[in-house]
Amino acid sequence: MRLTAGQTSDHIGAKLIYPALPAGAKTLIGDKGYDSDEFRQALHAKGIQPCIPPRAGRRSPADFCKTLYKQRHKVEIMFGRLKDWRRVATRYDRCAHTYFSAICIAATVIYYLNQ
């Protein structure tokens, strides 16, 4: 996991996590913020099939599996559950390491309660 600044675009954040992607990953499901030729080529070079819908203004739209993309709701549900924690949603903590710790604690409790 990587914590970036709030104003950082998804594309820049993807460049930061790219080296940490697991070697056995077959598919990466992402939203339109990750749609760039550079990121798609990097994923293909690592043997990962991107499932990213094209941006609206893209000249040559890339293909993606709509059925597989529907699984992305699981990630969105997790973000919604994290935002139920007021401390995480409003970012009370000024230090990045403290805020990241709060996110990790909240994610652990959410996981434990959903077992």
Topology:
Blueprint: H1 10-17, E1 27-29, H2 37-45, E2 49-51, H3 66-69, H4 73-83, H5 86-90, H6 96-113
Parallel strand pairs: 1-2
Provide an overview of this structure.
This protein has a two-stranded parallel sheet with strand order 1-2. The model has no long low-confidence stretch (mean pLDDT 86). The protein contains six helices and two strands. The two termini are 22 Å apart. It is mainly alpha-helical. It is globular. The protein has a domain at 1-69.
Percent strand: 5-15%
Note the gap between the termini: 22 Å
What structural class do helix, strand and pairing data support?
Answer: mainly alpha
Q: What is the string of SSEs from the N terminus onward?
A: HEHEHHHH
Tell me about the largest β-sheet: 2 strands, parallel
Please tell me what the overall shape is: globular
Low-pLDDT stretches: none
Strand order of the largest sheet: 1-2
Number of helices: 6
In total, the number of strands is: 2
Radius of gyration: 16 Å
What helical percentage do the residues reach? 40-55%
> What's the overall average pLDDT, rounded?
86
